[in-house]
Design goal:
- The protein is mostly helical and 156 residues long.
- The chain is built from 6 helices and no strands.
- Helix 1 runs antiparallel to helix 4 and helix 2 runs antiparallel to helix 3.
- It is elongated and about 55 Å long.
Length: 156
Amino acid sequence: MTLPSPRTAFRTVATAEAVTWFLLIVGMVLKYVTRTTELGVRVFGMLHGIVFISYVLVTIAVAVDRRWPIGRLALGLFSAIPPFMTVWFERHAERSDDIEGPWRLRTGGEQPTTLPERVLAWLVRNPALALVALVVAVAALTAIALVVGPPVPPGR
């Protein structure tokens, strides 16, 4: 088993994040405009949350591997907030040649020098465990988000 390239991984989660944004917007229209059902917000909101967390984790991994400056990482993370901006950022990163090629820290690649690079190198070199770690991290962060709950003004 091998991990998808940084480009493929990033493109997949960026596109999925935009698609789930669309589905969540459809769910919000059904709930707040047509007042027919709130099921769309419940289902698509959860799906979007899971994909959002996946996008954040993959963006951080690609940023560490590609040695993105902090500003590019911040823009990549921020792009998950406005609807559909992840697709724009992914295309921007591709045009800038920021996501091309294999993982830099793969087996036989560069040696990691920082703690984040050592963690990522281990994950890239152990793809089955990386997949398990991603699922566990997404599940844990989703559980934390569910416990914390949505931002609700006091008194509501």
